[in-house]
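Exam revision sheet. Question 4 asks you to relate a sequence to its structure. Input first:
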Amino acid sequence: MPSHRFTVGQVVRLVTTRGLSPAAARTYTVAAPMPAYHNSPQYRLWNAELHQERVAQERDLEAVDLK
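Answer key, structure tokens:
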């Protein structure tokens, strides 16, 4: 089973927005790790500003540098 690369509280960005509504958030905070799907770890994500929650696979995410 692959390990998770991102941690709870980390800010991530969706790599692809294909198929998403134009109103969908692009950055999220990792809320919880989830079991892998097709050998890719998944995460429950939350965007507080837009009150949006989603689940995404790790391969569809990249870390956001908040410096």
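Marking note for examiners. Residues 12 and 63 are 4 Å apart (CA to CA).
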